[in-house]
Amino acid sequence: IEIIVIEDGCRDGTAGYLEELVRTPWGREHVRWYHEDDVHELKCTNRGFAEARAPLMMTWQDDMFLQCDWLVPELIASFDYADLGLLCLSRGLDCFPFDEPIREWEDLHDERRMQSTIGKRPWNLFRLQEVDIVIRPWVVRRAVIERVGKLDEAFCPSEWDEADLCFRLREAGWKAATFGYERLGAYLHLGSTTLNFSPQYKQQVLRNGRLFHERWDEEIRRVHPRSRRTWLRRASLKGWTAALQYALRVGRKRSGRVETCEQDA
């Protein structure tokens, strides 16, 4: 396992911390870091792809924290499925043919156009679910990037770039899938403290969303009726135990709601 950090012009001492880290025995073996001048997420991801050496590459963000020792081995094992090109760790989305124009940011997220999914319950605890597009974090084969190219910088600074990649890898014969690892406690995503849905941000996303749909709406119409594939998780005992514990937590919560309703009645 190697961690590649793209330090994107941070002003909080991150560069100094990273320089100290790579001088430690663990850091020398596992960490490399590179500086960029505030180029944002998409270009930083492409820089990471360019510097990476492994057959599998994961996109990760600085507000995500690994919480277990079973996740990485399971992710690696999942790519024993030869047709799996990209695996998302949170939620995927399916795209639907919808002919209404995209005028506003909200139109991009209309459920008639796009729906979030991690697969059908309860089977989504046991299997990976094919999806049309994904959000970070995700793991991709190096062979995919070498075949279809890096993230398209037409989508700079970010947003809809990974959706475009999913459609390109599908054209090349691979599939994209998702599994909800965060709900099992595999990692913690704190969420950005600086992201805001300002008018400027929404206009940027709207531009990129329109570009995506201009490229791929015909393909969405063509492939949407297909059956989505599933794959059995390549989980360890710890991975299956995490799924069981999650199911028990959900069951207790639902049982508590039922009891409360009965008492209220």
The CATH architecture classification is Alpha-Beta Complex
Distance between the termini: 55 Å
Biggest sheet: strand arrangement: 3-10-5-11-8-13
Total strand segments: 13
- Share of helical residues: 40-55%
Taking Cα atoms only, what radius of gyration do you get, to the nearest Å? Answer: 20 Å
Structure description:
The protein is of the alpha+beta class. It has helices at about 15-20, 25-30, 40-50, 70-80, 105-110, 140-150, 160-170, 200-225, 235-265, and strands at about 5-10, 30-35, 55-60, 65, 85-90, 90-95, 115, 125-130, 135, 140, 175-180, 185-190, 230. It has one domain (about 55-265): Spore Coat Polysaccharide Biosynthesis Protein SpsA, Chain A (Alpha-Beta Complex). A 6-stranded mixed beta sheet has the order 3-10-5-11-8-13. Strands 7-6-9 form a 3-stranded antiparallel beta sheet. Helix 7 packs parallel to helix 8 (about 200-225).
What is the structure about, briefly put?
Helices cover 41% and strands 20% of the residues. By secondary structure, the chain is α+β, with helices and mostly antiparallel strands.
List the helices and strands and how they pair.
Blueprint: E1 3-8, H1 14-21, H2 25-30, E2 31-36, H3 40-51, E3 56-59, E4 64-66, H4 71-78, E5 84-88, E6 92-95, H5 105-108, E7 114-117, E8 127-131, E9 133-134, E10 138-141, H6 142-148, H7 161-171, E11 175-178, E12 187-189, H8 199-223, E13 230-232, H9 237-264
Parallel strand pairs: 1-2, 5-11
Antiparallel strand pairs: 3-10, 4-12, 5-10, 6-7, 6-9, 8-11, 8-13
Helix pairs in contact: 7-8
